[in-house]
TrEMBL record, chain A:
UniProt key word Glycosyltransferase: no
Residue ranges annotated for the Thiolase N-terminal domain, each copy included: 55-324
Similarity comment: Belongs to the thiolase-like superfamily. Thiolase family.
Pathways per UniProt: Lipid metabolism; fatty acid beta-oxidation
Alphabetical keyword list: Acetylation, Acyltransferase, Endoplasmic reticulum, Fatty acid metabolism, Lipid metabolism, Membrane, Mitochondrion, Mitochondrion inner membrane, Mitochondrion outer membrane, Transferase, Transit peptide
Leader sequence segment: none
InterPro entries, alphabetized: Thiolase, Thiolase-like, Thiolase_acyl_enz_int_AS, Thiolase_C, Thiolase_CS, Thiolase_N
One Pfam short name: Thiolase_C
Domain Thiolase C-terminal: 332-465
NCBIfam families in the record: AcCoA-C-Actrans
Organism from which the protein derives: Neophocaena asiaeorientalis asiaeorientalis (Yangtze finless porpoise)
Cellular localisation: Endoplasmic reticulum; Mitochondrion inner membrane; Mitochondrion outer membrane
SUPFAM superfamilies, A to Z: Thiolase-like (SSF53901)
Protein name (database record): Trifunctional enzyme subunit beta, mitochondrial
TrEMBL record, chain B:
Record-linked Gene3D superfamilies: 1.10.1040.50, 2-enoyl-CoA Hydratase, Chain A, domain 1 (3.90.226.10), NAD(P)-binding Rossmann-like Domain (3.40.50.720)
Entry's Gene Ontology cellular component terms: mitochondrial fatty acid beta-oxidation multienzyme complex; mitochondrial inner membrane; mitochondrial nucleoid
Lineage of producing organism: Eukaryota, Metazoa, Chordata, Craniata, Vertebrata
Residues of the active site: 510
EC numbers, comma separated: 1.1.1.211, 4.2.1.17
Sequence ranges assigned to domain 3-hydroxyacyl-CoA dehydrogenase C-terminal in this UniProt record: 544-639, 676-753
Pathway, per record: Lipid metabolism; fatty acid beta-oxidation
Record protein name field: Trifunctional enzyme subunit alpha, mitochondrial
C-alpha cells in the first residue's frame, strides 16, 4: 500500500505537464477543476481490495479507425490485429517472451482465421509458445477480452496478458445458401459418377442466392438501427437532439485529433498504400446538412439517420495488462488500474441498447462510489438516440422504479465529463475493437486531467470505472450485455 | 389466375371457422342519450390538426353505438366548420383497441329489418362524408379494428397502424350472420381488390398489420415502443399520434399523396378485374365455393357476394342501397340470431366465474404423452406455463414431444411464431419418465388410458409426491370423476378437465366438478383453461358429464340408422347438410370405434333404455375385425396416409347386413333421419339442464357447438329449441316415440316449454 502511494507521488510531475497543455481547452479545464475539487471529496481514496492482486493497464494502442472500404479494404482481419500488436510492442517495449497470454475480441469472424488472436500473434512475432484465444460478445468483445485478462491475472494464472480487438467490415463472409452447401458437401462424399450426377440433377438456380451475415438480432429479427429508432421514440428524443449530439461528438473528436490527444493511435503502413496516421471518419458537418438526410431505418418518418449513427469501421486495438507487482518489477509506469466490472443483460427487443443504464449504478455500488466520484465517463456511442436515451433513462425516477427495481434514479453523467474526446459516432466503431479504445481514452483523459476514477460503459457491452483513471466502454450492437470496470490510475 | 386466387382464398372458409370471432363486442348501454356532454369522443387541436380521440367510458373496448355515432357527427361538424383546422387524426385512447365493431345490442334491439336498414344507412351517410372530406383524415390504428371500425378506417383518407400483435383488421360480420353494413362491401373491393375483399368478408379472418400494409389496407406502419419515459402502451399511442399528425399535416400540405404505388401483381389483378367476363367468372367461382361449403345453411356469404356484385356492376348508389337492405334482412334471420347468441355465449365462457384462485398455477405436470396429453402440453407451453410431460416409456414420450414440436413448428411455417419464440416455448416443456419435479407442481392433469383402476393407480402415485395445494385433474371423457376421486386422500382437490381432440384446434374445455370439489380447485382449473385459450363450460359430475352424455344417444341412433340400411356416405351427407361439420359415420371413425363402444356400454348400463337404439354388436364386431376408425386405418371408411378421398370399407357391409333391422318407412325420410339424430341430442341436452348437470343453457349451447360440432347455424340445442319452437320438437319426438319407444320420450322441461310458448331458454 505504501509503495503504491510512493509511486503515485513519483509520477506526479509528468501529469502536471499534461495538465498544462490541458488547461488551454476551456471545456476540459472546467472539468479538471471540478475533478480536482472532487478528489478530496471522493467516497473512497482507493479501490484496492485486500487479498486481491492489483491489475494495471500499462498502455494501449490502436490502429487508426477507418471507414470501411477505404485504405484497409484489401487487408484481412489478422493483418489489422497484427498492426495493433506490433504497435503495442513498440510502444511498451514489452519483451515478447514475457507475455503469458493473448486474447482478442471480434464479432464478424473471418472463417479462415477463426482464432484471429493466434494468427495475429504469430504474425506479429510473439513466441509460438504464447497461447492465444478469441472471444466474441458483439460490440463489447474487446471488453470481454480485457475482463478475461483481469480474471486470468486475478486468479494468479498469468502475470502479463495482451488484450485487444479487431474488426474488418470491408470484407465479410458471404456464404453459399444452405441448399448449395448441402449439395456441395454431399458431392464431396459421393463415390460414383451416378451418385454425383443424381446430386447435380437436383441443382436449382435459387441454390446460388448467397447468404449475407445477419445484420439483425437473431432472436428478434430486428436490426440495431431499427431498435435504436424505437428506443429514441420511447424516450421522446427528437431528430434535432440526435443531430446535435452527433455534431458534438464530431466536433470534440476533431478538436482532440487536432490537439494530438488521441495518443493511442499508432501509424500503420498499409502494404501497397500510404501510411495511415489518423482516423478518417471525423467529419463535423452542419445541422442544416444533417437535417437533409432521410431516415435510414424507419422510413419515412424515423429519426435515426446515417449522420447520427456510428458507421461501419475497420480497426484494431490492443492493451497490455499486468499484475501490478509485475509491472513495477519490470519498471513500468502503468496508466491505470482496472478495478471492477459488471456485465448485465436485458430484453433484446425493447431494451437492446440500454445496457449502460443498468450497469452504471451496479458497478458504482459494487465499487462503493457515486456518480460524483467519477471524473471521466467514456460511453460507447452506437447511435445518438441510444446515448441520449440512456442519459434520459439514468435521469428518470420512473424508469428506475419500474424497470430497474431501484428507489431512485442514478442520475445522468455531466456532459462536461462525458466523451469529451469524441466517441464511436465520430471516431468510428470497429465492433470488436471499441472496448480497448474506450479504456485507453479514459486512462489518457484521467491522466491528462488529473482525475481519479473513470467509468466505461457500452451497450451490449461494458462499462468500467477507474480510480484516478479509467473507465471502460461498450459497444453498440450487442444487446443485452454490459460490463463495468473500475480502474485506479497510478500517476 | 385471379379466379384461382379468389377461390384459393376461400378454401379456408369452413363452418367451424365461423365461430372464431375475436373482438366483436356486446356492450350494454348504460347512459341515457339525454346527456349531451360528450362521453365517448373528444378532440383537441394541435397546430392545425384536430386530434379526435375515442374512448368509451367503463369499457375495455370502443364500439359503434348510437351515442358514439351522434357524438362523432357533432365532432366532425365542428372540425369541418373550423377555419383553424386543416386536417384531422382519428385515434383511440384505449390500448389494444381502435374500434372493435358495431354495438351488437343496438342491432339485437331492433325488431324489424327496416330499423336495421336505417341504422346502416345513417352510418353509410356519415362514412361517405368522411370519405369525401376535403380536410384529410388519418386513422391511427392501435389494437383491434374490426367490423364497423374497419369500415370507418377505410373511409378515412389515410391509415397508420401499429405493428403490434394486437392490431388486427378484419370484417368478422359474416361470422355473426350479417354483412359489413356501413359501406364496407363497397369500399373494401376498391381498396384491396375484389379477390382479397371477398376473402376478408367471407372468412371474417383478422389481418395483422404487416399483412394489411402489403395488401394496401393501411398506408404506414408504426412499431410498438418499449419502455421509455412512460409505460410502453401509453407511449406507443402517443408516438402513433405524433406520427399521424405529421402525416395529416403532410396530406393537408399536399406533400404526401394518399395514393399508393401498386405492385405488378396488383396492377395485373386490377386490369383483369376490369374485364367483365373475368369478373363474372370470379363471382361464379366464389359463389360455387360458398354454396359448397355452407351447404345453403348460411345466407350471409351469398348476400355479401351479391352486394359486392351490385356495387361493381350497377354503381355505388345501387351498391349502398343493396348493402343496407340486405344488412337489414340478414339481421332478422334465425342464423344471425343463432350466431350472435353463440358469440355472446363464447364471451361469457371466457370469464372465470369462480374468481382468482388462491395460488396461480405456474408449474403444470401432465401424465401420459399420448394425443391428448401432448395436445394439452402444446397449448400450455406456448402460454408460458412450465410443463412436465411424463410417460412410462421413452418411445411414447418421444412421440408426444415430437407432437408438441410439430404443433409449434407449424405455427412458424405460417409465420404466426418466429423460430426463436418456438424454441423458447419448447424449452418450457420437460419430458421425463419419473416423478422428479412433481413436488413443485401446482396442477397435475392426467391423460392416461381410460381405465378406472389405472387412473386410481396414477392418482395414488401422484398424491405421494405432489404438494398439498396441487390440483389433480383428470382428462376423461366418460369416467365419473367421483369414482376417480374415491381413491384420493383429498377429494376436494380432484376435478375433471375434459379436453377435445385435437386439443390445439378444439376450443372447448369441459370442467367437471364433484360435490366434494372445492371452489378454489374449480377456480384454478378454469384459470388454467382460460390461459390455454379455451372456451369453458363447468358442469356437474355424472355419467358422461354433459358432452359425452348428449352425444351417446345420437351415436346410438347413428348405428340404428346404419343397421336400417342407410349407407355411411348417405348418412354423412345427411348430417353435414343439416349443418354438422363432420358426418355422423366419419365422427365414429374419428372418435374411435373402441371408444364409442366403451362409452355406449358404460352409459347404456347407467341410463338403460333411453340410450338404446342401435345394437352394440355392430361396434363389437368392428372391433374384433380391427376396424377401430382412423387410428387403425379402417373404420366405416378406409384411411391411407397421403390419400385424401375416403373409400368405404366394404367389409363393414357384411357386418351391417348380418345385423340388419327393418326400417320404418314413416320415420325414415331424409328429413326424419336428420331429426331423429338431432332431437335425441336436444332432448338429452335439455334433460341435463333439467337435472342440474348444466348450470345455464348458454353453457349447453357452447358445449354442444364447440365440443361436439352441433350445427352453429342453429346456435346450439337450447337456441334451436327457442328458434325452431319447443312444440315442434316435442311433436317430432312424439312421432318417433310412437315408432321406437322410450328413447324418444321428451323430457319434462321440454314439455313445459312446449306447453307455454312464452317460455324461452333465452329471454
Amino acid at each position: 500500500m505504501t509503495s503504491l502511494l510512493t509511486y503515485t507521488l513519483k509520477y506526479l510531475p509528468s501529469t502536471s505537464q499534461w495538465a498544462l497543455r490541458f488547461s488551454m481547452r476551456p471545456l476540459s479545464c472546467s472539468s479538471q477543476l471540478r475533478a480536482a475539487a472532487a478528489v478530496k471529496a471522493k467516497s473512497k481514496q482507493t479501490l484496492a481490495k485486500p487479498n486481491m492482486r492489483n491489475i494495471v493497464v500499462v498502455d494501449g494502442v490502436r490502429t487508426p479507425f477507418l471507414l470501411s472500404g477505404t485504405s484497409y479494404k484489401d487487408l484481412m482481419p489478422h493483418d489489422l490485429a497484427r498492426a495493433a500488436l506490433s504497435g503495442l510492442l513498440h510502444r511498451t517495449s514489452v519483451p515478447k517472451d514475457v507475455v503469458d497470454y493473448i486474447i482478442f475480441g471480434t464479432v464478424i469472424q473471418e472463417v479462415k482465421t477463426s482464432n484471429v488472436a493466434r494468427e495475429a500473434a504469430l504474425g506479429a512475432g510473439f513466441s509460438d509458445k504464447t497461447p492465444a484465444h478469441t472471444v466474441t460478445m458483439a460490440c463489447i468483445s474487446s471488453n470481454q477480452a480485457m475482463t478475461t485478462a483481469v480474471g486470468l491475472i486475478a486468479s494468479g494464472q498469468c502475470d502479463v496478458v495482451v488484450a485487444g480487438g479487431v474488426e474488418l467490415m470491408s470484407d465479410v463472409p458471404i456464404r453459399h445458401s444452405r441448399k448449395m452447401r448441402k449439395m456441395m458437401l454431399d458431392l464431396s462424399k459421393a463415390k460414383t459418377l451416378g451418385q454425383r450426377l443424381s446430386l447435380v440433377s437436383k441443382f436449382r438456380l435459387n441454390f446460388l442466392s448467397p447468404e449475407l451475415p445477419a445484420v439483425a438480432e437473431f432472436s428478434t429479427n430486428e436490426t440495431m438501427g431499427h431498435s435504436a429508432d424505437r428506443l429514441a421514440a420511447a424516450f421522446a428524443i427528437s431528430r434535432l437532439e440526435q443531430d446535435e449530439y452527433a455534431l458534438r461528438s464530431h466536433s470534440l473528436a476533431k478538436k482532440a485529433q487536432g490537439e494530438g490527444l488521441l495518443s493511442d493511435v499508432v501509424p500503420f503502413k498499409v502494404p501497397g498504400k500510404d501510411t495511415v496516421t489518423q482516423d478518417n471518419g471525423i467529419r463535423p458537418s452542419s445541422l442544416e446538412q444533417m437535417a437533409k438526410l432521410k431516415p435510414a431505418f424507419i422510413k419515412p418518418y424515423g429519426t435515426v439517420t446515417a449522420a447520427n449513427s456510428s458507421f461501419l469501421t475497420d480497426g484494431a486495438s490492443a492493451v497490455l495488462i499486468l499484475a501490478e507487482e509485475k509491472a513495477l518489477a519490470m519498471g513500468y509506469k502503468p496508466k491505470a488500474y482496472l478495478r471492477d466490472f459488471v456485465y448485465v443483460s436485458q430484453d433484446p427487443k425493447d431494451q437492446l441498447l440500454l445496457g449502460p443504464t443498468y450497469a452504471t449504478p451496479k458497478v458504482l455500488e459494487k465499487a462503493g462510489l457515486t456518480m460524483n466520484d467519477i471524473d471521466a465517463f467514456e460511453f460507447h456511442e452506437a447511435f445518438s438516440g441510444q446515448i441520449l436515451a440512456n442519459l434520459k433513462a439514468m435521469d428518470s425516477d420512473w424508469f428506475a422504479q419500474n424497470y430497474m427495481g431501484r428507489k431512485t434514479k442514478v442520475g445522468s453523467p455531466p456532459l462536461e465529463k462525458f466523451n469529451i474526446w469524441g466517441g464511436s459516432l465520430s471516431l468510428g466503431h470497429p465492433f470488436g475493437a471499441t472496448g480497448c479504445r474506450l479504456v485507453m481514452a479514459t486512462a489518457n483523459r484521467l491522466q491528462k486531467e488529473g482525475g481519479q476514477y473513470g467509468l466505461v460503459a457500452a451497450c451490449a457491452a461494458g462499462g468500467q470505472v477507474c480510480h484516478r483513471s479509467i473507465i471502460g466502454a461498450s459497444r453498440k450492437s450487442f444487446p443485452w450485455k454490459q460490463n463495468k470496470f473500475i480502474q485506479e490510475c497510478l500517476i | 389466375m385471379v379466379a384461382s386466387r379468389a377461390v384459393g382464398s376461400l378454401s379456408r372458409f369452413t363452418a367451424s371457422r365461423m365461430l372464431r370471432c375475436p373482438g366483436y363486442i356486446c356492450r350494454s348501454f348504460t347512459r341515457s342519450s339525454a346527456l349531451l356532454t360528450r362521453t365517448h369522443i373528444n378532440y383537441g387541436v394541435k397546430g392545425d390538426v384536430a386530434v379526435i380521440r375515442i374512448n368509451s367510458p367503463n369499457s375495455k373496448v370502443n364500439t359503434l353505438g348510437q351515442e358514439v355515432h351522434s357524438e362523432f357527427i357533432e365532432v366532425m361538424n365542428e372540425v369541418w366548420s373550423s377555419n383553424q383546422i386543416r386536417s384531422a387524426v382519428l385515434i383511440s385512447s384505449k390500448p389494444g383497441c381502435f374500434i372493435a365493431g358495431a354495438d351488437l345490442n343496438m342491432l339485437t334491439a331492433c325488431t324489424t329489418s327496416q330499423e336495421v336498414t336505417q341504422i346502416s344507412q345513417e352510418a353509410q351517410r356519415m362514412f361517405e362524408k368522411v370519405e369525401k372530406s376535403t380536410k384529410p383524415i388519418v386513422a391511427a390504428i392501435n389494437g383491434s379494428c374490426l367490423g364497423g371500425g374497419l369500415e370507418l378506417a377505410i373511409s378515412c383518407q389515410y391509415r397508420i397502424a401499429t405493428k403490434d400483435k394486437k392490431t388486427v383488421l378484419g370484417s368478422p360480420e359474416v361470422l355473426l350472420g350479417i354483412l359489413p353494413g356501413a359501406g364496407g362491401t363497397q369500399r373494401l373491393p376498391k381498396m384491396v381488390g375484389v379477390p382479397a375483399a371477398f376473402d376478408m368478408m367471407l372468412t371474417g379472418r383478422g389481418i395483422r398489420a404487416d399483412r394489411a400494409k402489403k395488401m394496401g389496407l393501411v398506408d404506414q406502419l408504426v412499431e410498438p415502443l418499449g419502455p421509455g419515459i412512460k409505460p410502453p402502451e401509453e407511449r406507443t399511442i402517443e408516438y402513433l399520434e405524433e406520427v399521424a399528425i405529421t402525416f395529416a399535416k403532410g396530406l393537408a400540405d399536399k406533400k404526401i399523396s394518399p395514393k399508393r404505388d401498386k405492385g405488378l401483381v396488383e396492377k395485373l389483378t386490377s386490369y383483369a378485374m376490369s374485364i367483365p367476363f373475368v369478373r363474372q367468372q370470379i363471382y361464379k367461382k366464389v359463389e360455387e365455393k360458398v354454396r359448397k361449403q355452407t351447404k345453403g345453411l348460411y345466407p350471409a356469404p351469398l348476400k355479401i357476394i351479391d352486394v359486392v356484385k351490385t356495387g361493381i356492376e350497377q354503381g355505388s348508389d345501387a351498391g349502398y342501397l343493396s348493402e343496407s337492405q340486405k344488412f337489414g334482412e340478414l339481421a332478422m334471420t334465425k342464423e344471425s340470431k343463432a350466431l350472435m347468441g353463440l358469440y355472446r355465449g363464447q364471451t361469457l365462457c371466457k370469464k372465470n366465474k369462480f374468481g382468482a384462485p388462491q395460488k396461480e398455477v405456474k408449474q403444470l405436470a401432465i401424465l401420459g404423452a399420448g394425443l391428448m396429453g401432448a395436445g394439452i402440453a402444446q397449448v400450455s407451453v406456448d402460454k408460458g406455463l412450465q410443463t412436465i410431460l411424463k410417460d412410462a416409456t421413452l418411445a411414447a414420450l418421444g412421440r408426444g414431444q415430437q407432437q408438441v414440436f410439430r404443433g409449434l413448428n407449424d405455427k412458424v411455417k405460417k409465420k404466426a411464431l418466429t423460430s426463436f419464440e418456438r424454441d423458447t416455448f419448447f424449452s418450457n416443456l420437460t419430458g421425463q419418465l419419473d416423478y422428479q419435479g412433481f413436488e413443485k407442481a401446482d396442477m397435475v392433469i392426467e391423460a392416461v388410458f381410460e381405465d378406472l383402476s389405472l387412473k386410481h393407480k396414477v392418482l395414488k402415485e401422484v398424491e405421494a409426491v405432489i404438494p398439498d395445494h396441487c390440483v389433480f385433474a383428470s382428462n376423461t371423457s366418460a369416467l365419473p370423476i367421483n369414482e376417480i376421486a374415491a381413491a384420493s386422500k383429498r377429494p376436494e382437490k380432484v376435478i375433471g378437465m375434459h379436453y377435445f381432440s385435437p386439443v390445439d384446434k378444439m376450443q372447448l374445455l369441459e370442467i367437471i366438478t364433484t360435490q366434494k370439489t372445492s371452489k378454489d380447485t374449480t377456480a384454478s382449473a378454469v384459470e388454467v383453461g382460460l390461459k390455454q385459450g379455451k372456451v369453458i363450460i363447468v358442469v356437474k359430475d355424472g355419467p358422461g358429464f354433459y358432452t359425452t352424455r348428449c352425444l351417446a344417444p345420437m351415436m346410438s341412433e347413428v348405428i340404428r340408422i346404419l343397421q336400417e340400411g342407410v349407407g355411411p356416405k348417405k348418412l354423412d351427407s345427411l348430417t353435414t347438410s343439416f349443418g354438422f361439420p363432420v358426418g355422423a359415420a366419419t365422427l365414429v371413425d374419428e372418435v374411435g370405434v373402441d371408444v364409442a363402444k366403451h362409452v355406449a356400454e358404460n352409459l347404456g348400463n347407467v341410463f338403460g333404455e333411453r340410450f338404446a337404439g342401435g345394437s352394440l354388436e355392430v361396434l363389437k364386431q368392428m372391433i374384433s375385425k380391427g376396424f377401430l376408425g382412423r387410428k387403425s386405418g379402417k373404420g366405416f371408411y378406409i384411411y391411407q396416409e397421403g390419400v385424401k378421398s375416403k373409400n368405404l370399407n366394404s367389409d363393414i357391409d357384411s357386418i351391417l347386413a348380418s345385423l340388419k333391422m327393418p326400417s320404418q318407412p314413416d320415420v325414415s325420410s331424409d328429413e326424419d333421419i336428420q331429426y331423429r339424430l338431432v332431437t335425441r341430442f336436444v332432448n338429452e341436452a335439455v334433460l341435463c339442464l333439467q337435472e342440474g348437470v348444466l348450470a345455464t343453457p348458454t353453457e349447453g349451447d357452447i358445449g354442444a357447438v364447440f365440443g361436439l360440432g352441433f350445427p352453429p347455424s342453429l346456435g346450439g340445442p337450447f337456441r334451436f329449441v327457442d328458434l325452431y319452437g319447443a312444440q315442434k320438437i316435442v311433436d317430432r319426438l312424439r312421432k318417433y316415440e310412437a315408432a321406437y319407444g322410450k328413447q324418444f320420450t321428451p323430457c319434462q322441461l321440454l314439455v313445459d316449454h312446449a306447453s307455454s310458448p312464452n317460455k324461452k331458454f333465452y329471454q
